[in-house]
């Protein structure tokens, strides 16, 4: 089985839930402490062995390319000021063996369409990853690396799934599958995009990590619009189930839904409290604030 070396990052969305913060900057550039969401996803992909990063962008997303580009002027400035460690940190975001490619999605026609925009770069015989930066995933090993191992063992497409309350299933693609348990996978029998209340086949929701076999591109090429009039990736993956098969994988780790304000706040607080430099002071500050409220 060929290793997964390509990853697609659909980053053309407008981020309307975070307006006005996202009026002039991509939602993927919102930071948790001092790192933008898209960088967390890129680092996860690189840790899983990905060497080609494919960003499917929109016309307002130049900041993403700028973030991952080399900045010789800033590098020199930091080194002149004795901040060589910071300069090295910035330089190491994209290792020398990793390349970035940017493709424009001309119109927002759904996640499936965004993935299909990268079809010229993906062969029919090679699997690739899809990472949604809205979902900040923390795991050891990284979640995508866990999924890559499942793909190596099965040769199938692999979807990260997580149990959610039944009253929240209408916000997700939901799979019909036995619950494999944490760190394990199980074959998917069916899946539904954003099922109506009471019609979800399970409480196992697909979250923002996929490893897809290359034949998905030929399926997407013929895929009709689905829910919301968009080309749904879920609908295309569903057609793989009776042919090549698809695995639901319960990853080991934590997901923060940074597409929602509460999830973004949770990620910021949890990672702030765990920060080696700022964590103790933040914890003391929060305890003082909560103590003051209770008083």
Automatic annotation (TrEMBL):
Keyword Nucleotidyltransferase carried by entry:
yes
Reaction(s) catalysed (UniProt annotation): alpha-D-glucose 1-phosphate + UTP + H(+) = UDP-alpha-D-glucose + diphosphate
> From what superkingdom does this record's organism come?
Bacteria
Q: Which Gene3D superfamilies match?
A: Spore Coat Polysaccharide Biosynthesis Protein SpsA, Chain A
* Location of the Nucleotidyl transferase domain: 11-270
Q: Does this entry carry the keyword Protein biosynthesis?
A: no
Q: A single GO BP annotation from the record? A: UDP-alpha-D-glucose metabolic process
* Molecular function GO terms recorded: UTP:glucose-1-phosphate uridylyltransferase activity
Q: Which UniProt keywords apply?
A: Nucleotidyltransferase, Transferase
Matching entries from InterPro entries are given as: GalU_uridylyltTrfase_bac/arc, NTP_transferase_dom, Nucleotide-diphossugar_trans
Q: What is its EC number?
A: 2.7.7.9
Instruction: List the CDD domains.
Output: UGPase_prokaryotic (cd02541)
> Record's NCBIfam families?
galU (TIGR01099)
Q: Which family does it belong to?
A: Belongs to the UDPGP type 2 family.
Q: Spell out the protein name for this chain.
A: UTP--glucose-1-phosphate uridylyltransferase
Query: Which species is this UniProt entry from?
Result: Rubellimicrobium mesophilum DSM 19309
Q: Taxonomic lineage per UniProt?
A: Bacteria, Pseudomonadati, Pseudomonadota, Alphaproteobacteria, Rhodobacterales
């Amino acid at each position: 089985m060929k290793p997964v070396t390509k990853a697609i990052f659909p980053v053309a969305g407008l981020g309307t839930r975070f307006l006005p913060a996202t009026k002039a900057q991509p939602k993927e550039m919102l930071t948790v402490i001092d790192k933008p969401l898209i960088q967390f996803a890129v680092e996860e992909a690189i840790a899983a062995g990905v060497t080609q990063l494919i960003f499917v962008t929109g016309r307002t997303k130049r900041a993403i390319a700028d973030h991952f580009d080399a900045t010789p002027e800033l590098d020199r400035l930091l080194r002149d000021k004795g901040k060589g460690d910071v300069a090295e940190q910035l330089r190491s975001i994209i290792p020398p063996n990793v390349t970035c490619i940017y493709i424009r999605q001309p119109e927002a026609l759904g996640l499936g369409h965004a993935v299909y925009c990268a079809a010229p770069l993906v062969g029919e015989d090679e699997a690739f990853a899809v990472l949604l930066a809205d979902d900040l995933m923390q795991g050891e090993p990284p979640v995508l690396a866990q999924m890559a191992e499942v793909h190596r063992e099965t040769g199938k497409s692999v979807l990260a799934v997580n149990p959610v309350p039944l009253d929240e299933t209408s916000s997700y693609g939901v799979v019909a599958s036995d619950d494999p348990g944490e760190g394990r996978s199980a074959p998917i029998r069916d899946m539904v995009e954003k099922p109506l209340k009471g019609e979800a086949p399970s409480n196992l929701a697909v979250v923002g990590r996929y490893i897809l076999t290359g034949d998905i591109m030929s399926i997407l090429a013929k895929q009709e619009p689905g829910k919301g009039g968009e080309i749904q990736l879920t609908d295309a993956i569903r057609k793989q189930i009776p042919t090549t098969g698809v695995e639901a994988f319960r990853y080991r780790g934590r997901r923060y839904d940074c597409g929602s304000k509460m999830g973004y706040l949770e990620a910021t607080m949890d990672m702030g409290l765990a920060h080696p430099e700022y964590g103790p002071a933040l914890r003391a500050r929060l305890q003082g604030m909560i103590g003051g409220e209770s008083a």
